[in-house]
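Sequence in, structure out. Go.
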Amino acid sequence: MKAVTSQGHLIKLSDIQVHYQVAGSGPPLVLLHGLGGSHVSWRKNIEALAQSHRVYVPDLPGHGYSDKPKIRYTLAFGVNFLRDFLQTQRIERASLVGASTGGLVALEFALSYPSKVDKLVVVDSAGLGRELHWMLRLLSLPLVGEILARPRRSGVRWLLKTMFYNPDLVSEELVEAIYQMRRQPEAKQALLRSLREGASLTGQRSHILALERLPQIQSPALIVWGEHDRLMPVAHAYRAHSLIPNSQLHIFPDCGHAPYLERPEEFNQVVLDFLRNGGGN
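Output:
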């Protein structure tokens, strides 16, 4: 594998400064991280995917090194952000890989702008059922969420060990990288605003669920899931696969909520195989 170096950039979108990484050359591929994530989430995937694609990795507003305005981080806001981001990069059509909340944004974007999506990969995605881990439900509560979301290395370590099937794979290097993102100014409040738009004490909010509209997705789709996802159950993957017409399903055994971090080499190969051979144009 040839060495590919990603470079960081800053752009302004609707008065919000956005940080993003870009690497490689070829058909455009956009990686969308989940709640509380950033470009760091894709640290083990960018170089492999950039061997054959021009890979764009934005820190979604409210996350990473991007601005964290005091706004409502609605699903519509996320979709509009992605539309505007593609426009600034002069990308008319791209493949999308979205994880967790990023998967929900990718699904909604594919439904709203089908002509702009080549292939779609959703990874342990939100929006496919109400079931949700109890910790995320508690974070949605006033005051309780403010206490639980305080940036601590111990909290990041606990969350990663909950996300991973094999907690021994959680490295201190990864804990530190994510902790540094979480301690950015206003990051805690932005995370809570984002979470509370889509979750409550009873689980994922009904207004973000995309199930009834999944049969309208036109792009070839790959649904990737960890068999032992504790945050969002694997049953959501099977449900989505049954509803999205031109879809494939890949379940990672002995894997949790983040196969791109826990099983990166296999994940990269599965995604590249789909992008190369997964149908469509």
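Check: The longest helix spans residues 75-88. The beta strands are 7-13, 16-23, 28-32, 54-58, 94-99, 117-123, 199-200, 203-204, 221-226, 247-252.
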